[in-house]
Design a protein that fits this description.
Helix content is 15%, strand content 48%. It has five helices and 18 strands. The protein has an 18-stranded mixed beta sheet that branches. It is globular, with a radius of gyration of 20 Å.
Length: 349
Amino acid sequence: MLTDKTHKALDELNRVGLSDASYIIENQNIIYESLASQFDGKVELHDIRTVKDDRLWSLIKDKDHIIDDIKKYETENVVGGLYLIFKKDITFPFQSCMILSNDSVQRLHNLIIVNDNVKAFMITGCTTHTGDNGGEHRAITEIILGRNASLNYTMIHDWGEDTKVYPRTFVNVGENSKFVYNYVNLNRAAHIQTMPLIRLERNAVAESNSLVYVDRSMIDMGTVIKLGENAKGRINLRSIFNTGELISRGKIIGNKKSVGHNACDVLMLNDGVVESIPELVSHSKDAQLSHEAAIGKLSEKEVEYLMTRGMTEDEAISLIVHGFLDTKILGLSPEIETEIKKLLDKLKV
């Protein structure tokens, strides 16, 4: 029987586009776990505190105060998280949710593994309970893809107005494998700082896509992609900036016969600080690396044209904003894309 706390958490998931979560963590504790029959024999799921695996911490070479903090508390067995192995192909996304409540500090460490020759989809929603606006989210997520594997991993953030958010993500993409990382944040958080590190082995492919709305927030985010031989990587960021500060970072490190591209597009509705910092590093004359960035305001001609078609100014601006945050770059299944579009419909600019 579900507790009142679990019922409340399940209700909160609608805010982040999740309809069928298999796993919910509130602060550090699991409050809901239920694998649907479609995952039987295909997904292995445990509390991170109940397993021993040499791959934990294997991807983390450099550290900072967030990582040090999680490691310190992990020795006291109070860091929550999920241990997840995709053992066979799945066709419907595995859904999980991390909830921060009571203005706490949430510490998590997740390990996600995709076995050789397995194709998987995953969507994670991170949020606060309605009315809880503060607290800190600190999380390490390590993702390991075997050979000839595929993972489309989507993270949706919907925090409280005063929440501080520090995810640390490390990914290793095996030979001939493909990893798609999608990050969506369409609500205000006081501070978000994240810089996923994605390492690609030979012939691997990775995409990092971000759709971000910035309003009275400090957001410092980006992606580092390290390309192996003949690997391909792409970074895409699209942001609607209202007020606050946005730093968009993107770094691609090229190797022999590798290809990488970094694109940043920001649409500014009001004054503030927007900084784009693209970085390309090549270790081979055969690498092909490129970047592009655009920061600008709404086109007055586009707004005026739409108004001649019967729209109000607000309706015209809303249409342009929603078109700019194109969900098609995320490569989602039709069901999940529909849920993301519902979140966009709630976006008020």
